[in-house]
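Support request from a user on the community tier.

User writes: "When I paste my structure tokens into the form, the page sometimes reloads and wipes my input. The last time it worked, I copied everything first. Here is what I submitted, just in case something in the input itself triggers the reload:"
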């Protein structure tokens, strides 16, 4: 998994890739990053569900 940083309309973005060839990376800015951090436990629970 790779992590890159970019910019969109002057705002810093984090870009998460499954691998170097990932055509559709997951990217988000600071506002969404804060939401993810605040709700990490719920997101982890959701991800672990079958």
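"...and here is what came back when it finally went through:"
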């Amino acid at each position: 998994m790779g992590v890159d940083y970019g910019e969109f309309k002057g705002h810093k973005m984090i870009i998460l890739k499954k691998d170097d060839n990932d055509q559709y990376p997951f990217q988000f800015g600071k506002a969404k990053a804060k939401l993810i951090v605040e709700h990490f436990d719920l997101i982890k629970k959701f991800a672990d569900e079958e």
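Agent notes: The reload is a front-end session timeout and is unrelated to the input. The chain has a mean pLDDT of 95. The radius of gyration is 13 Å. Escalated to web team.
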